[in-house]
Design goal:
Blueprint (H helix, E strand, L loop, with lengths): L2 H4 L5 H23 L35 H20 L25 H7 L5 H29 L1 H20 L4 H29 L5 H29 L3 H11 L7
Helix pairs in contact: 3-7, 3-8, 5-6, 5-7, 6-7, 6-9, 7-8
Length: about 260
């Protein structure tokens, strides 16, 4: 059928067919233009893919945490939030350090109410040393992320979580069985370093498994640890230290942390 014949007013079906064909051709040409072209080197040859670029195998890659089942992703958020709460039950707000009197009215952490008994067991009378047994944990919490955060980017978050959790339990038990104040201070510092893992990596874990538009609720749950941890710590620690001894403040939390799921 000739072009002149298609342009006549007495063939509307032919005109419609021609317009449809033209639209299809335009769509194909537009798609070809929008398709990303491989990068080329100066000599015109295609560049090889950059081996330093790491990405998922497409948007439906099952290894991508965003594609995990909703229950698994939310479970990760809950676990990290609970561990952060446990870790910060042992911490102490810096503004309360100045209020630590010589082994009296110590309510800043779960362990703090038992400082008087600890100093008596270790035959120490220096009030500054007594305060240091509490605050050295914060020193570990501050220094730990300097090493833990880069390690999580190099080796992944999961092995870092497992290693730090193992060290946390081991040295937490070591604090409970310490026989002198120097041993206790060393073990408590290492416990603080290991305990900084969920504080440093928790936000990154939430960003890995929760879409941005739904991240507010997950971050609110995660933030409960820093908010209520230092509050409920002394309440629990006061009863524990009074009735069963300061060493049990470490044993109880070591037992709780030992239930941390190993396969998250």
């Amino acid at each position: 059928m000739s072009k002149d014949h298609l342009n006549t007013s007495d063939s509307p079906q032919a005109l419609m067919a021609l317009e449809t064909n033209n639209a299809l051709v335009e769509d194909l040409e537009k798609g070809a233009e929008e398709q990303p072209q491989p990068e080329k080197s100066d000599d015109g040859s295609e560049k090889a893919p950059d081996p330093n670029i790491v990405d998922w195998d497409g948007p439906d890659d099952p290894s991508n945490p965003m594609n995990w089942p909703k229950s698994k992703r939310e479970g990760h958020v809950v676990i990290v939030s609970v561990i952060t709460l446990i870790v910060l039950v042992l911490s102490i707000p810096m503004q309360l350090l100045s209020r630590l009197t010589p082994f009296r009215n110590l309510g800043a952490t779960m362990f703090a109410p038992g400082v008087a008994d600890l100093m008596q067991d270790f035959h120490q009378t220096d009030s500054t040393l007594g305060s240091f047994t509490v605050s050295i944990y914060l020193l570990g919490l501050g220094l730990g992320p300097l090493f833990i955060a880069p390690m999580s980017e190099l080796y992944g978050r999961l092995p870092v979580y497992h290693i730090c959790n193992s060290f946390f339990i081991i040295f937490f038990v070591a604090c409970a069985v310490s026989t002198d104040v120097g041993m206790f201070l060393a073990f408590r510092f290492i416990t603080g370093v290991a305990g900084s893992c969920p504080v440093a990596l928790g936000g990154g874990t939430i960003a890995d498994v929760i879409p941005q538009e739904k991240r507010g609720g997950a971050m609110a749950l995660f933030a409960l640890g820093p908010l209520i941890g230092p509050i409920i710590g002394p309440v629990i620690g006061g009863f524990v230290a009074q009735y069963i001894g300061w060493r049990w403040t470490f044993r109880i939390l070591a037992i709780v942390v030992s239930f941390y799921p190993p396969n998250i």
